[in-house]
Hints:
Elements: E1 28-29, E2 32-33, H1 38-50, H2 54-67, H3 72-84, H4 88-101, H5 106-118, H6 122-135, H7 140-152, H8 156-169, H9 175-191, H10 195-208, H11 213-226, H12 229-242, H13 247-259, H14 263-280, H15 283-296
Antiparallel strand pairs: 1-2
Helix pairs in contact: 1-2, 1-3, 2-3, 3-4, 3-5, 4-5, 5-6, 5-7, 6-7, 7-8, 8-9, 9-10, 9-11, 10-11, 11-12, 12-13, 13-14, 14-15
Amino acid sequence: MLFRNLLNVFLSNVFLSIALWLLPLPAFADGMPIVATTKEVIHAGVLAFQKEDYASAIEHFNQAIQLDSNDAVAYSDRCLTYLQLKDYSAATLDCTQALALNPNSVETYLNRGLAYYKSGKFTEAIADYTQVLQLKPNDYRAYYNRGLAEVDLAAYRDAMVDYGQALRQASPLDRLTLAEIYNDRGLAQVLLNDQQGAIADFTQAIQFNTADIRAYYNRGCVYHQKGDRVAALEDFNQVLQRDPHEVRTYVSRGLLHQEMGKMGEAIADLKQAAEALNRQGATADYQQVLRLIQKMLPGTIAFG
């Protein structure tokens, strides 16, 4: 099975209000705190966010909103913090309020689009990414994220167009980003039954990021579908050289070894997978792998 890492969806503004970083923290005089400005409180929230103290960041952004309920930055930054906390409903509400105050904020549309996407509201996410492109036509993040949402709506050809635009707009120096886009375009190619196109895209991803186990694994799966067992085996080997604990690859390679008549190697791979799944407490998967091993053991009769 191919795999897709949705964590690769880009947060639009990871560090929040960069322009506020240089603001001084509130000073104290005669033991009494001076009343902080909205910007100073937001700055404190940014610092908490950077330290991954999201609860404190929320408190600071709450305070900023109490000081000035018309500050779009406070709502937008709180939206991004809620995204980190996976509270997508709250994130959507905050971004919507921020956009009511500042309807031309590209970053807020991107963040609300991500909140919609994570909530399974793919049509709404696409609308927000489209709005970004009206405001900033060359933003590769909007093309890429819209492509992800289109795949979830089975609009694979639309996704192919958007991934192509993302590749054209992304910096040629950002090799890791290019690798991710090629990876996801490769998955769209698979869903369109274009095996050669998928292999070409996964190969491009590997060229941009030679440590990319996702690309090796997915390319190996496509090679397997094409009947090229040798190439599939080489890609699965590449994954396990880079990550000796990648369970699904042990299962895939074990089944491939079985097809190739290498029963000893097949059983060894499946035992590796079973041990890892048992340690993880993945009982159902562990039992399923044990059944596969049992069927491969000499003298075992498989029924059905």
